[in-house]
Design goal:
Elements (H helix, E strand, L loop, with lengths): L1 H8 L4 E6 L3 E7 L6 E8 L3 E3 L2 E3 L2 H23 L8 E6 L5 E3 L18 H11 L8 H10 L10 E3 L1 H10 L3 E3 H4 L5 E2 L4 E2 L1 H13 L12 E3 L10 H7 L10 E2 L3 E2 H8 L7 E6 L3 E6 L12 E4 L5 E7 L4 H16 L6 H15 L8 E3 L16 E3 L8 H11 L2 H12 L6 E5 L8 H10 L3 E4 L5 H15 L6 H9 L5 E4 L3 H16 L1 H10 L3
Parallel strand pairs: 1-6, 6-13, 6-14, 9-12, 15-21, 21-22
Antiparallel strand pairs: 1-2, 2-3, 4-5, 7-8, 10-11, 15-16, 16-18, 17-18, 19-20, 22-23
């Protein structure tokens, strides 16, 4: 405790802050062993306004300040110390989306998150033009859709970025972005470690035809790689993060990254033939490639690690939201029945019942946890749905096994494509909310993907810890190690984890469930057509 107290007072710890879909989290780490020493968090929720998923600007700054104040409180309670300085700082956030500003830094349109799927036309045109997959949630899809829809603000755009890039800019004055997050804005050339010049020229031709008064490269943030100096913490930035004035400016910031990049760091999955699956509100698998995929796949994103290695990303918009809603229903019943049970125990009880006693194929129960549209299955809007055969054994075990299975349905379809491309994975690591209950989510995923799944003891720290490690890398990499070497030799040298192998009966059962999942997609699409507000 006294050693940590001294490190905090000397300003030697690194700080990582990540804006997740439902929680903003701050983690302060020890510079000697990279372990978290204090944390703070703030719960928040996106809003569906004017048909778009968004967060208000006030939500961003109010949430950030409350999250940081909770971290300061944790430091004070644990170490009797005042947090006044840090060695380095990193900002991460959910990837993609659209935040646009004019030349005077005025915010021009509501923040559009990754969750929106209103950009189908733009994404299809750009994919056809580039012959490179441009997903609906990428920032360039949002910009082009705004142009196609003739939104008033588009001619005044002088800069657009992601949520992480925006917060970083306000803290440093630097319009930059980590290469992993930048790869969710516009295609990256892994050789030049910058935006793809050919596609920039093609998009500029589109801009000229639309009479836009700018070129794309004038609007995009500068691309940086892990370890690069991304600017210093300004006085204005320090006041934005800590309105009390106690936190001092002057520390280095690492390049702001997306949650995919921090997930790779948090699971030590930045080397070739490693992969990780982040399973929370959304779910995505990241696999570091030995070589580029042989052809275009609309279900696969081409992105990068935080140091610029090629990555195949399979992203599904929906994972645990509906699963959590079902748990919430049972929590509501317990409340009505005046039965006391904390949420952790309730999750554990329901999940373990599903794993231990649920039919391997869910006995004809089918579920779609689609809170929002799903690009992999071409479903434009969300309609959570449950269906079953009249003779299905409709019990808790089968219901929750179906809900666990369906949280992995779309991602499984994408992973099947990587398998067809002969992509090799030596190690797959899981992290995120699905793995909070020990062994359950891990076992279900191992069966679903028919591959061993590791969960490290550090993986529970999540992306905020990952961006704190990247912040530390920016100031502690005195040996000029690559990011992979730095993680192996320093951060994960004593890491402990557990591997679960797939169970054949479980894998066979999931495959039967997936057959129904694909066959019954027509029901889900019909629900979108018929079920309106």
């Amino acid at each position: 405790m006294s050693d940590i107290n001294s490190l905090i007072l000397q300003g030697k710890c690194s700080l990582g802050i990540e804006f997740g879909s439902t929680r903003i989290k701050a983690v302060l780490i020890d510079p000697t062993n990279f372990a978290p020493v204090a944390q703070g968090s703030h719960e928040w929720e996106n809003r569906l306004e004017n048909g778009l998923w968004t967060y208000h600007i006030d939500d961003i700054w109010g949430g950030l300040q409350h999250c940081y104040s909770e971290l300061v409180k944790d430091v004070k309670e644990k170490y009797k110390a005042d947090l006044k300085a840090v060695a380095s700082l990193g900002i991460s956030a959910m990837m993609h989306g659209y935040m646009a500003f004019d030349k005077d830094d005025n915010h021009l349109a509501q923040f559009r998150t990754w969750r929106n799927s209103n950009t189908t036309k733009a994404a299809e045109i750009l994919t056809d033009t580039f012959q490179f997959n441009i997903p609906e949630r990428w920032s360039i899809s949002h910009l082009y859709q705004c142009i196609l829809d003739k939104e008033e603000h588009v001619k005044n755009v002088a800069f657009f970025t992601t949520l992480a890039g925006y917060v970083h800019y306000k803290l440093t004055g630097q319009k930059v972005l980590g290469i992993g997050d930048a790869a969710g804005m516009f295609p990256i050339d892994s050789y030049t470690k910058n935006y793809n010049e050919k596609y920039l020229m093609q998009f500029n031709e589109i801009l000229a035809k639309e009479n836009m008064p700018y070129k794309l490269e004038e609007l995009l943030p500068k691309v940086l790689c892990a370890g690069d100096n991304a600017g210093t913490f300004t006085e204005q930035g320090a006041k934005l993060l800590d309105p009390t004035g106690n936190l001092q400016p002057g520390c280095i910031l690492c390049p702001p990254e997306g949650d995919a990049g921090t997930g790779m760091v948090a699971t030590n999955s930045v080397a070739v033939r490693t992969g990780n699956v982040s399973a929370g509100t959304s779910i995505f698998a990241m696999v570091v490639l030995e070589k580029a995929l042989s052809k275009l796949h609309r279900e696969i994103d081409n992105v990068t690690t935080p140091d610029g290695m090629q990555v195949a990303m399979v992203h599904a918009n929906n994972c645990t939201s509906d699963l959590n809603a079902w748990v919430g229903l049972f929590a509501d019943f317990l409340k009505v029945a005046n039965i006391k049970m904390d949420m952790n125990t309730l999750f554990k009880t329901l999940y373990e019942e599903a794993l231990n006693n649920g039919a391997k194929d869910c006995d004809g129960i089918i579920s779609y946890g689609y809170f929002s549209g799903e690009n992999i299955t071409s479903v434009p809007e969300g309609r959570p749905l449950l269906a079953r055969m009249p003779n299905s054994n409709f019990n808790i075990a089968n219901l929750f096994r179906a809900n666990l299975y369906t949280s992995l349905g779309a991602i499984k379809l994408g992973m099947n494509i990587l398998k067809s491309e002969q992509v090799k994975i030596d190690k797959l690591l899981g992290h995120g909310g699905l793995f909070k209950t020990p062994r359950v989510g891990q076992s279900i995923m191992a069966d679903a993907l028919n591959t061993p799944v590791w969960v490290m003891t550090t993986a529970g720290e999540g992306g905020a810890w990952g961006i704190a490690v990247l912040a530390a890398y920016s100031v502690q990499n005195t040996k000029n190690e690559s990011l992979s070497e730095f993680l192996d030799n320093n951060v994960f040298k004593d890491a402990v984890g557990e591997k679960i192998d797939p169970d054949k009966a479980g894998s066979d059962g999931f495959d039967k469930f997936l057959e129904r999942y694909v066959l019954c997609l027509g029901i889900e699409k019909q629900a979108v057509s018929c079920l309106k507000r």
